């Protein structure tokens, strides 16, 4: 265990918390990113005890629940150890975990939007976009959607499964015949590929049967609605699809 004093740790936290305080309102994702970056920069070291939730909430100018959420992300990913009556400590292996790229690249690269940020943005406009696809899609578009649905159904690896999902969405975007919308989604795919779809070390692993079944059903229903030229239903199903993902997502940045 590191022999850094609590006072030293609190002082270090003041330094790195300034990165996201002030004009930029802290969210759980931003607190999480700041802590990870502090570890990489050496401001926080393996074995260090983190300041308590109250102090962190003051330093980040945010709520204790926001801080608690950020710490929960780290706990889920094995980066910290919580000791009842003592506090939260960085694991002695925290640097090895980070160096092994066991966390999404988006977690510590401000230039890459997080999965949550992308989902929030897509939910704002994609339901309306699919209604446009319903009115403009041709037989070739529907064939491409079905082709990518087959990839979702049969993909042996998680990374191929994700490529299939994004292939379905891209085919829907292309069906709008709107180059701006297509470029927007191609940028989304580029960002997601840059972080291996946040797959961490599991990108080469198998797909959960339950996840595959649910994803295939939801995307299939959207494509069915598009092929039926029912833009209203397609938009409603798309909104439900993203709302469900957002509701079940454990935010990790």
What does this structure look like?
This protein is mainly alpha-helical. Helix 10 packs antiparallel against helix 11 (231-248). The chain has helices spanning 6-17, 28-41, 53-59, 64-76, 94-99, 115-136, 139-154, 158-174, 179-194, 209-227, 231-248; strands at residues 80-83, 87-90. The longest helix has 22 residues, at 115-136. The chain has a two-stranded antiparallel sheet with strand order 1-2. It starts with 5 loop residues before the first helix and ends in a 5-residue tail after the last helix. It contains eleven helices and two strands; from the N terminus they run ααααββααααααα. It folds into two domains: 28-100, Orthogonal Bundle (Arc Repressor Mutant, subunit A), CATH 1.10.10.10; 104-250, GntR ligand-binding domain-like (Four Helix Bundle (Hemerythrin (Met), subunit A), Up-down Bundle).
Q: How is the topology of this model organized?
A:
Blueprint: H1 6-17, H2 28-41, H3 53-59, H4 64-76, E1 80-83, E2 87-90, H5 94-99, H6 115-136, H7 139-154, H8 158-174, H9 179-194, H10 209-227, H11 231-248
Antiparallel strand pairs: 1-2
Helix pairs in contact: 2-4, 3-4, 6-11, 7-8, 7-10, 8-9, 8-10, 10-11
